[in-house]
Amino acid sequence: MAKTNPSQFFSQVKTEASKVVWPTRQETVTTAIFVAIMMVILSVFFLGIDTLFGAIVRWLLTIA
Description:
Keywords: Cell membrane, Membrane, Protein transport, Translocation, Transmembrane, Transmembrane helix, Transport. It holds the Pfam family SecE. One of its GO terms (molecular function) is protein transmembrane transporter activity. It is a single chain. This protein is mainly alpha-helical. The chain has a domain at about 25-64. Helix content is about 80%, strand content about 0%. It has helices at about 5-20, 25-64. The chain is elongated. The termini are far apart. The mean pLDDT is about 95.
């Protein structure tokens, strides 16, 4: 692989950075809201699973 000098490297970095498509403010807000909703749904789901398994384990321990 050919080595590039620092000025060529930074020029290439600048060129590649200009190709980045940044999300709009609306897209960022929408994504953040979606992530928050999914976090709440998944936490309630795992709370329910944990409670169910805890009750099963407590019931099994009372049998033994």
